[in-house]
UniProtKB/TrEMBL annotation:
<feature type="transmembrane region" description="Helical">
    <location>
        <begin position="298"/>
        <end position="318"/>
    </location>
</feature>
<dbReference type="GO" id="GO:0016020">
    <property type="term" value="C:membrane"/>
</dbReference>
<feature type="transmembrane region" description="Helical">
    <location>
        <begin position="359"/>
        <end position="382"/>
    </location>
</feature>
<protein>
    <submittedName>
        <fullName>Putative Na(+)/H(+) antiporter</fullName>
    </submittedName>
</protein>
<keyword id="KW-0472">Membrane</keyword>
<feature type="transmembrane region" description="Helical">
    <location>
        <begin position="114"/>
        <end position="134"/>
    </location>
</feature>
<feature type="transmembrane region" description="Helical">
    <location>
        <begin position="26"/>
        <end position="44"/>
    </location>
</feature>
<keyword id="KW-1133">Transmembrane helix</keyword>
<feature type="transmembrane region" description="Helical">
    <location>
        <begin position="187"/>
        <end position="210"/>
    </location>
</feature>
<feature type="transmembrane region" description="Helical">
    <location>
        <begin position="330"/>
        <end position="353"/>
    </location>
</feature>
<dbReference type="GO" id="GO:1902600">
    <property type="term" value="P:proton transmembrane transport"/>
</dbReference>
<dbReference type="GO" id="GO:0015297">
    <property type="term" value="F:antiporter activity"/>
</dbReference>
<dbReference type="InterPro" id="IPR006153">
    <property type="entry name" value="Cation/H_exchanger_TM"/>
</dbReference>
<feature type="transmembrane region" description="Helical">
    <location>
        <begin position="146"/>
        <end position="175"/>
    </location>
</feature>
<feature type="transmembrane region" description="Helical">
    <location>
        <begin position="222"/>
        <end position="255"/>
    </location>
</feature>
<dbReference type="InterPro" id="IPR038770">
    <property type="entry name" value="Na+/solute_symporter_sf"/>
</dbReference>
<feature type="domain" description="Cation/H+ exchanger transmembrane">
    <location>
        <begin position="11"/>
        <end position="378"/>
    </location>
</feature>
């Protein structure tokens, strides 16, 4: 397993560098490496590594989401409050229900099967969006209007809506009764619970770091941060909280309460991210079954396109009556395209549940990763300098 991990790290690193020379995001190279070395192509990776793949990807996501939180200024969050909520809800619902209707007519799915597919596809990928927005924040693009913050906040809650509604349709498909009211109640419980949990854990970390009995050096402080964050993530998942959102909130609270520690953590986590991003994107790539993606065919592409068009319309509606220019709203559309993490995590659940449509749903979920992850990442990289103002 260690040899496979080293192969991913070194080949993923080289691929990212090569891709960056042609001014494309390095994650494209990493994804390709994962696909090539993964079980669906050359099958070079140790099976034991793939068994712990999800845990490694979760750790990498925790690292990047803490970094995202450590970059969220209170003033910027106030700017994007209501627009972020609209960005998290409207595009997700537009895409999910549009795909549901399209698959009803094009695939002869029932509305329940279409709903499952729709809300698998409706989730934005934090693995692609969050690192891209952090890069833009550091470069100063769109920060005058808090655009990276808007997208970070919106995308993190978007996943909560998508996964909750997918769970509702999956339960209906396997015959588990679940009322619409329970779904409506579950969404605010998930979001508010995730936020409150993140705040509580952050305050505990701050109290520990402020302890006068024990002095912690920079490395020990980082160990405390990551330990509490990972523990909270897994406990939050068990309690069905929006734990990824909570992890980002954790970083925000630490920045607000302890700016000195926040600065140290940002530097240390940036170093860890060099390794973590390679693990994240190569292992996401290893989950991609190219054969399944090809099986989805033209109809699969059409359904994905219908969903993306509906999502884009949703973004335009969500950003109407804000201080964003039309160019900036177009950028928000592009930034909301990538899909990867959630689709890789839940795309196989209908098939695992024994549903007849599960194979087709998985194939289209995989195809959505293949198409939109590179498209979104490249689009963000190329469009940001043209569509966003750079802070001088």
């Amino acid at each position: 397993m260690l040899l496979s991990l080293m192969l991913l790290l070194i080949i993923g690193f080289i691929a990212a560098k090569l891709v960056s020379y042609i001014r494309l995001p390095g994650l494209i190279g990493m994804l390709v490496v994962g696909v090539v070395l993964g079980p669906y192509l050359f099958n070079i990776l140790d099976a034991n590594l793939l068994l712990v793949s999800q845990d490694l990807r979760h750790f990498a996501l925790v690292v990047i989401l803490i970094r995202a939180g450590l970059g969220l200024q209170r003033t910027n969050l106030k700017k994007v409050g209501l627009p972020a909520l609209k960005m998290s809800l409207i595009p997700c619902l537009f895409e999910g229900f549009s795909v549901m209707i399209a698959s009803y007519y094009l695939l002869d799915f029932s509305l329940i099967e279409g709903g499952m597919l729709g809300f698998i596809l409706a989730a934005v990928s934090p693995a692609v969006v969050v690192p891209s927005m952090i890069e833009l924040q550091e470069a100063g693009y769109g920060t005058n209007k808090g655009i990276p913050t808007l997208i970070l906040a919106g995308a993190s809650i978007d996943d909560v809506f998508a996964i909750t509604l997918f769970s509702f349709f999956l339960s209906a498909a396997v015959g588990v009764e679940q009322s619409i009211l329970s779904v409506i109640v579950k969404i605010p419980y998930t979001i508010i619970g995730g936020i409150v949990g993140g705040i509580v854990v952050a305050l505990i970390i701050v109290l520990v770091l402020r302890s006068k009995r024990v002095a912690f050096n920079q490395t020990e402080s980082l160990l405390i941060l990551l330990t509490f964050a990972v523990l909270y993530f897994y406990i939050g998942e068990k309690l069905e909280l929006a734990s990824l959102l909570g992890v980002m909130v954790l970083g925000f609270v630490i920045l607000d309460r302890e700016p000195k520690y926040a600065k140290q953590f940002s530097i240390s986590l940036a170093a860890i991210w060099v390794f973590a991003q390679i693990i994240l994107f190569t292992l996401v790539g290893a989950e991609v079954n190219i054969q399944l993606a090809l099986e989805a065919g033209v109809i699969g592409l059409v359904i994905i396109l219908v969903g993306l068009v509906a999502r884009s319309l949703g973004v335009l509606i969500a950003t109407a009556n804000t201080n964003l220019s039309f160019k900036e709203r177009v950028f928000c559309i592009i930034a909301y395209l990538p899909k990867a993490t959630v689709q890789a995590a839940i795309g196989s659940l209908p098939l695992t549940a024994g549903l007849e449509s599960g194979g087709v749903i998985l194939a289209i979920a995989v195809l959505s990763i293949v198409v939109t992850a590179p498209l979104g990442a490249i689009g963000i990289r190329l469009s940001a300098p043209r569509l966003l103002m750079k802070k001088s």
